[in-house]
């Protein structure tokens, strides 16, 4: 046998062995998937049928509220476009002071890790003075030593960036996200009518009305959008920088991140990148109770009363400050590739009623982007993470149904529509399909990785967990296929059941036992919870399935004591067992009831369950 013939026989044997191994692997994976799917309830495997319920007038009234105002006054200092700190002569004179009696200092604010800031020494300024650091705290005294002004100021400084930033092009688009916490599609239509009318009707943005949250709060939903991962996957990940953000950096984008709330960031839960322009330091500094934002009137010699409402910092709404800071990112990096993330919490998180305060400002910001040409090569998203979770609206059945249907609307530049009509067709098809944050992540990847041409030409393939919105998402998609847990699946109908039913009491006690076990497992100083009363009970079912009385899904709203917590649980009860679907949700605010829970456990959800014993 010659050498070539021997090699052919060896290669043939190797190929056959690999084919056999590959076949075995396919069979094993197939069996595993079959067993997993077999144990998944039939309801979640069914094609999605969105529950259609119209709100009544009583529900709409719950979204009405008294407008909140920040105490408006002109600041005594400002930073101009060139980065120079000045005194505001007009405002000082209007307050009956003179420049000559003013003595002002400032301190720079710098990030110190993820959850703290550090301060530079006080610097006396004689205007004008160039401020290198983006965020400062200004303090002004008059001759007799009285503090007449203290406030935060910012100026986005391109000099802090050390990377090469490339120009926008027609095939390498900028990405801008305007986010509002806790805003369902329905709430947005009621409270942001001007914004949605201009964005969707005038600019032609595409509403994604079947967009569904995959988790209870912000973290799992935004983590899926920005990293494509669940919380456990992020914990186990060995990457120091998420794939999408790494691509943002390597492709020459400038990155600007502005949020009006500074929750504790747990390093091992998510690998938060160190953004180039990061507004977090101001929000962290503002939480320091020793710092005050104030201005003194020389007429009364009293500090002007400021709103204590968390939607304000001193004399301005937080969402307007976020827009102003982000606007500087566009102005300082004109025609450059930009990745801009704006997230507004305070104006919507606790009270959906107050969201209307941001309507005109959001509309004007988008109008400004359009009129200045900043949308020419930019994909703009207006979105949320989930609907309202607390308050009277969230406690209604309509609030429950819409809670897992957050706002999402996407603007695509005109030249992209003309060049890639097929992906626009898919966006329109997907408007009312079941979609998730995992799908949005794949969409952002297509934009950042410049995959639009590929999406234009490809046929629909087997769907992974996330499917780009530039590909058609099939009409028969189920919550199981979309990786939506049962407790967040929007594809159920429901009917009320008697509160006196023994099974209702049984499943409620089961949910409370689950709460107490969570508290016990974490060894924290929280009270043992007991049932106070059941507020409501409904049975969940899939409309297209026959009603099975041997297996019921109960959605229960109940009060516990101590603390008068109002909770919601979805519990599965069949002839053999009882099980909880997802987690137990809190429907009323808990304030300082859980102040004994340390920051390092904030991500566990314990705070919404705990009533501190001390």
Distance between the termini: 87 Å
Work out the number of β strands: 25
Structural class: alpha+beta
Contiguous low-pLDDT stretches (5 residues minimum) are 32-40
User: What Rg is obtained from the alpha carbons, in whole angstroms?
Assistant: 27 Å
Pfam families: DUF229
Transmembrane segments: 21-36
Keywords: Membrane, Transmembrane, Transmembrane helix
Descriptors for this entry?
614 residues, Alkaline_phosphatase_core_sf, alpha+beta, Alkaline Phosphatase, subunit A, membrane, seven-stranded mixed beta sheet
Explain what you see.
Strands 3, 4, 5, 7, 8, 13 and 14 form a 7-stranded antiparallel beta sheet that branches. 31% of the residues lie in helices and 20% in strands. It is of the alpha+beta class. It is built from 19 helices and 25 strands. The longest helix has 36 residues, at 3-38. Mean pLDDT is 87; it is low at 32-40.
Task: Summarize, please.
With 614 residues, the chain is α+β, with helices and mostly antiparallel strands.
Topology:
Layout: H1 3-38, H2 42-45, H3 57-61, E1 77-79, E2 84-87, H4 89-94, E3 103-111, E4 117-119, E5 123-124, E6 129-130, E7 135-141, E8 147-154, E9 174-180, H5 185-191, H6 193-202, E10 206-207, H7 218-227, H8 231-236, H9 243-250, E11 254-259, E12 277-278, H10 280-286, E13 294-297, E14 302-303, E15 312-313, E16 316-317, H11 318-332, E17 338-344, H12 359-371, E18 378-384, H13 392-395, H14 397-403, E19 408-411, H15 414-419, H16 421-429, H17 437-448, H18 452-457, E20 493-496, H19 502-521, E21 530-541, E22 551-561, E23 565-574, E24 578-580, E25 585-586
Parallel strand pairs: 9-17, 9-18, 11-12, 11-17
Antiparallel strand pairs: 1-2, 2-6, 3-4, 3-5, 3-7, 7-8, 8-13, 10-19, 13-14, 15-16, 18-19, 20-21, 21-22, 22-23, 23-24, 23-25
């Amino acid at each position: 046998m010659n050498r070539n013939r021997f090699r052919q026989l060896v290669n043939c044997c190797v190929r056959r062995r690999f084919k056999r191994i590959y076949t075995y692997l396919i069979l094993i994976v197939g069996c595993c998937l079959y067993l997993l799917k077999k144990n998944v309830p039939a309801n979640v495997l069914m094609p999605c049928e969105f529950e259609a319920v119209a709100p009544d007038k009583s529900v709409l009234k719950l979204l009405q509220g008294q407008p909140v105002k920040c105490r408006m006054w002109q600041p005594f200092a400002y930073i101009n476009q060139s980065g120079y700190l000045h005194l505001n002569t007009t405002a000082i004179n209007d307050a009956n002071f003179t420049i000559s009696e003013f003595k002002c200092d400032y301190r720079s604010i710098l990030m110190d890790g993820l959850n703290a800031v550090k301060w530079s020494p006080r610097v006396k300024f004689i205007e004008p003075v160039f401020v290198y650091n983006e965020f400062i705290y200004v303090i002004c005294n008059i001759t007799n030593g009285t503090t007449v002004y203290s406030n935060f100021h910012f100026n986005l400084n391109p000099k802090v960036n050390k990377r090469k930033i490339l120009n926008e092009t027609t095939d390498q688009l900028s990405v801008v996200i305007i986010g509002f916490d806790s805003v369902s599609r329905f709430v947005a239509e009621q409270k942001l009518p001007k914004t949605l009318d201009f964005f969707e009707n005038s600019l032609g943005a595409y509403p994604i009305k079947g967009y569904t949250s995959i988790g209870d709060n912000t973290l799992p939903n935004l983590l899926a959008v920005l990293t494509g991962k669940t919380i456990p996957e992020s914990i186990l990940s060995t990457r120091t920088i998420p794939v999408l953000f790494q691509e943002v950096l390597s492709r020459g984008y400038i990155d600007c991140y502005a949020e009006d709330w500074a929750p504790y960031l747990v390093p091992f839960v998510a690998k938060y990148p160190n953004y180039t322009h990061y507004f977090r330091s101001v929000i962290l500094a503002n939480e320091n109770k020793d710092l005050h934002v104030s201005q003194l009137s020389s007429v009364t010699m009293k500090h002007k009363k400021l709103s204590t409402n968390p939607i304000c910092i001193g004399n301005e709404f937080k969402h307007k400050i976020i827009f102003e800071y982000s606007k500087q990112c566009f102005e300082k990096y004109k025609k450059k590739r930009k990745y801009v993330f704006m997230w507004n919490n305070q104006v919507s998180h606790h009270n959906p009623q107050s969201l209307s305060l941001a309507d005109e400002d959001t509309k004007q910001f988008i109008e400004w982007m359009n009129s200045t040409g900043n949308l020419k090569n930019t994909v703009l998203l207006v979105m949320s993470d989930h609907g309202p979770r607390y308050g009277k609206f969230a406690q209604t059945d309509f609030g429950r149904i819409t809670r897992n249907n957050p706002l999402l609307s996407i603007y695509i530049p005109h030249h992209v529509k003309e060049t890639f009509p097929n992906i626009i067709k898919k966006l329109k098809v997907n408007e009312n399909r079941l979609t998730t944050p995992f799908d949005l992540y794949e969409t952002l990847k297509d934009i950042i990785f410049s995959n639009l041409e590929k999406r234009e030409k490809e046929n629909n393939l087997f769907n992974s967990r996330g499917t780009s919105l530039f590909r058609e998402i099939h009409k028969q998609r189920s919550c199981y296929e979309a990786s939506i847990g049962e407790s967040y699946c929007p594809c159920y109908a429901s009917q009320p059941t008697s509160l006196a039913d023994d099974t209702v009491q049984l499943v409620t006690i089961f949910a409370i036992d689950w709460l107490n076990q969570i508290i016990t497992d974490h060894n924290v100083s929280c009270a043992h919870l007991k049932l106070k009363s059941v507020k409501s009970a409904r049975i969940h079912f899939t409309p297209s399935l026959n009603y099975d009385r041997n297996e019921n899904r109960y959605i229960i709203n109940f009060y516990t004591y101590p603390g008068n917590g109002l909770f919601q649980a979805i519990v599965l009860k069949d002839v053999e067992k009882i099980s909880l679907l997802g987690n137990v949700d809190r429907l009323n605010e808990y304030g300082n009831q859980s102040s004994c829970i340390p920051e390092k456990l904030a991500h566990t959800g314990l705070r919404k369950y705990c009533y501190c014993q001390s």
